[in-house]
């Protein structure tokens, strides 16, 4: 099987990937061709040691940074991000809130639009900005990696255009998150193996720091230096896996000017509400300091307190803080900062009072285009449920079952083959069923306290939409295992939130209350606890688009589905072809199958899913390292394709992400590996001398 050859080629691939990478430090460069400006970033996924709450721990990072680097762009730019996976587990990255017109290939959710990027591999994401302007963010979209692999995307107005308000003196990303003492991958593995709820985080964080209400944290708390009279733009991002937040700054009011990547009619609040996935662009006028008002001081807390609505879910109720510090007039005596007022942890009225204030700017420069006529209506119930414990299993969920979650009582089963690739190759049938229901199978009193439909079942059911159809989705919370608010996020689109309310949606009465004039334009809507929210969008972005609750635990329990939007007739209404470097998308576009000379064969490359001691993903086995195969191999090894499966892979085939498959071109004489995980250039049968040199250098 010429195993001896393989490591050499792998090394060559690595040398290429990382040799080039090492020469190009992690920074942005930009170039302008045609009308679009393109920008380039290098993201190295790697482990780094961080100390929080008095303990050191290894976390996954981008470029060693936590939170990760900020991407800067202007409206309409294209951003290329080379992601080099130097970590020891599979990963993908998602550009949250970027519509990616016609380009689902770079969207990122694992097993939806791509197979994960394996350790030692690279994937270049092409992030096509269109109408987005304001604050967005990027994050890992595999397992629980998002906990530490996330950062801001700042999209400035096009050159020659301006903000619809006075330009602030300074802009600062404020990223809300969480910190666990333990390894998040391990927590995920444990929770999934027992079907139990997740352990709550040990602290909430602002820009990666819990703040000085926590042990060993005051010196490192995030500090925002300000000068009296200046205006600061805070780009607030909720990157937390499990927590919605109230956010406030003592002594200051906040003027909200944008949400997700769209401007809104400015309104001023003492505190704001932000759900995971959402962003708020906020102006802060530094009008205090010392000697300006009677109760002035020079330090004020900014604080994030959880909003938690499900009384039966465990959660971390701690408040994260940072310090706003006037640096132009430091007083002689240091005084402790003042704490802001924040609503109580379960104050649903406060959360809702904030959400109903969001209205699009709807100006001449920033118009709205709210669809009035609806082609396709869906009512989607949101629920946390149970799946009966399998005989012989040890389940630690409710009533000794497994905890699960569902939309219209379908608990989404993540496939092992990326749906996008299967759909593109017209072999969707083996991967997903195109019959996600438009409404719940039975109507019931969704928000009352009885428990119908306590059980759900796993299935991969997706919704197929005609190109250009106007879709209205009403998300309806249910009381099945407790009412709860849910941040529902759609990939590939922003949508208008045309209505929201408490109780059960009434299709006869509630549409009369819709705002079709200036509804907010968002990518993540907070569906109120025991209530509903209605969104509208025109399905004019062909592709495969994930839709899910942005609470990570609900997502892994199945609270999601996929919208497949068909191609339209015109050329600009069709999906782009896949890029040449899609991880493990096999077929002609990959250049691998060539003229039909290639043959599939199976090699035993390890594919690891969870790090360290956690259980392996289903079907994978625990393996010890084998030298010369892949660097420092120990972890979970995916099963190999059976000879039958491998034979079944003809031209245009789509391989499952979790099976080991590499292609060997027998006609090349020396069993040259041409696996798709390798950089394109290493697929030649004779390496050019330059790369050979690099190979020598890297193997010494
Ligand atoms: Cu912010 Cu599917 O993600
Ligand atoms: Cu949820």
Automatic annotation (TrEMBL):
Family classification: Belongs to the multicopper oxidase family.
Main location class: secreted
Signal peptide (UniProt feature, chain positions): 1-23
GO cellular component terms, A-Z: apoplast
BP term (GO), one: lignin catabolic process
Catalytic activity: 4 hydroquinone + O2 = 4 benzosemiquinone + 2 H2O
Annotated InterPro entries: Cu-oxidase-like_N, Cu-oxidase_2nd, Cu-oxidase_C, Cu-oxidase_fam, Cu_oxidase_CS, Cu_oxidase_Cu_BS, Cupredoxin, CuRO_1_LCC
Residue ranges of domain Plastocyanin-like in the record: 46-159, 171-327, 436-568
Positions of transmembrane segments: none
Residues covered by region (Disordered): 671-700
Molecular function as annotated in GO: copper ion binding; hydroquinone:oxygen oxidoreductase activity
Species for this entry: Lolium multiflorum
CDD domains: CuRO_1_LCC_plant, CuRO_2_LCC_plant, CuRO_3_LCC_plant
Cellular localisation: Secreted, Extracellular space, Apoplast
Positions with biased composition (Polar residues): 673-689
Keywords, comma-separated and alphabetical: Apoplast, Copper, Lignin degradation, Metal-binding, Oxidoreductase, Repeat, Secreted, Signal
Cofactor comment: Binds 4 Cu cations per monomer.
Function: Lignin degradation and detoxification of lignin-derived products.
Gene3D superfamilies with a match to the protein in the record: Cupredoxins - blue copper proteins (2.60.40.420)
EC number(s) from the headed UniProt entry: 1.10.3.2
Keyword Transit peptide: no
Cofactor: Cu cation
Record protein name field: Laccase
């Amino acid at each position: 099987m010429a195993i001896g050859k393989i490591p050499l080629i792998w090394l060559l691939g690595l040398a290429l990937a990382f040799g080039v990478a090492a020469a190009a430090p992690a920074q942005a460069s930009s170039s302008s061709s045609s009308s679009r400006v393109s920008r380039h970033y290098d993201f190295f996924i790697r482990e780094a040691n961080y100390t929080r709450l008095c303990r050191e721990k290894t976390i996954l990072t981008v470029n060693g940074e936590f939170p990760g680097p900020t991407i800067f762009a202007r409206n309409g730019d294209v951003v290329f991000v080379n992601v080099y996976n130097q970590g020891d587990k599979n990963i993908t990255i998602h550009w949250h809130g970027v519509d990616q017109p016609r380009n689902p290939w770079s969207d990122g959710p694992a097993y939806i639009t791509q197979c994960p990027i394996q350790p030692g591999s690279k994937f270049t994401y092409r992030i096509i900005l269109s109408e987005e302007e304001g604050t967005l963010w990027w994050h890992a979209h595999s397992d629980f990696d998002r906990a530490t692999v996330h950062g801001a995307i700042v999209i400035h107005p096009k050159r020659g255009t301006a903000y619809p308000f006075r330009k602030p003196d300074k802009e600062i990303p404020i990223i809300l998150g969480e910190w666990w003492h333990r390894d998040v991958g391990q927590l995920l593995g444990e929770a999934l193996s027992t079907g139990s709820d997740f352990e709550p985080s040990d602290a909430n964080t602002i820009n990666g720091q819990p703040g000085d209400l926590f042990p060993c944290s005051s010196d490192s708390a995030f500090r925002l230096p300000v000068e009296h009279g200046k205006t600061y733009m805070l780009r607030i991002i909720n990157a937390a896996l499990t927590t919605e937040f109230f956010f406030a700054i003592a002594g200051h009011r906040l003027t909200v000017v944008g949400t997700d990547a769209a401007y809104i009619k400015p309104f001023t609040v003492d505190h704001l509400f932000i759900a995971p996935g959402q962003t708020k662009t906020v102006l802060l006028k530094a009008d205090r300091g010392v000697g300006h008002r009677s109760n002035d001081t020079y330090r004020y807390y900014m604080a994030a307190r959880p909003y938690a609505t499900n009384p039966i879910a465990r959660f971390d109720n701690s408040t994260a803080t940072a310090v706003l510090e006037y640096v132009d007039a430091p007083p002689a005596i240091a005084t402790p900062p003042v704490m802001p007022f924040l609503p109580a942890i379960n104050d649903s009225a406060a959360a809702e009072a904030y959400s109903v204030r969001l209205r699009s700017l709807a100006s001449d420069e920033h118009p709205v285009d709210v669809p009035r006529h609806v082609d396709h209506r869906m009512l989607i119930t949101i629920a946390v449920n149970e799946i009966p414990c399998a005989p012989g299993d040890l389940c630690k969920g409710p009533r000794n079952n497994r905890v699960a979650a569902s939309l219209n009582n379908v608990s989404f089963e993540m496939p092992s083959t990326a749906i996008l690739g299967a759909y593109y190759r017209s072999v969707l049938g083996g991967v997903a069923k195109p019959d996600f229901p438009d409404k719940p199978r039975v109507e019931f009193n969704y928000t009352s306290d009885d428990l119908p439909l306590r059980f759900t079942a796993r299935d991969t059911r997706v919704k197929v939409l005609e190109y250009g159809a106007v879709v209205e989705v009403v998300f309806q919370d249910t009381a099945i295992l407790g009412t709860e608010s849910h941040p529902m996020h759609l990939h590939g689109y922003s949508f208008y939130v045309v209505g929201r309310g408490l109780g059960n949606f009434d299709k006869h009465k509630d549409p009369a209350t819709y705002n079709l004039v200036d509804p907010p334009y968002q990518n993540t809507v907070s569906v109120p606890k025991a209530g509903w929210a209605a969104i509208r969008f025109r399905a004019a972005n062909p592709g495969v688009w994930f839709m899910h609750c942005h609470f990570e635990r609900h997502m892994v329990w199945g609270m999601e589905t996929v919208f497949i939007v068909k191609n339209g007739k015109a050329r600009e209404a069709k999906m782009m072809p896949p890029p040449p470097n899609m991880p493990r998308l096999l077929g002609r576009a990959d250049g691998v199958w060539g003229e039909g000379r290639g043959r599939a064969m199976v090699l035993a490359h390890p594919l690891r899913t969870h790090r360290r001691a956690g259980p392996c993903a289903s079907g994978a086995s625990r393996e010890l390292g084998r030298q010369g195969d892949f660097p420092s191999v120990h972890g979970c090894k995916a099963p190999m394709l059976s000879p039958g499966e491998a034979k079944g892979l003809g031209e245009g085939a789509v391989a499952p992400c979790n099976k080991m498959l590499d292609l060997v071109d027998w006609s090349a004489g020396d069993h040259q590996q041409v696996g798709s995980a390798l950089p394109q250039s290493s697929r030649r049968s004779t390496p050019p001398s330059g790369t050979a040199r690099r190979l020598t250098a890297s193997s010494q």
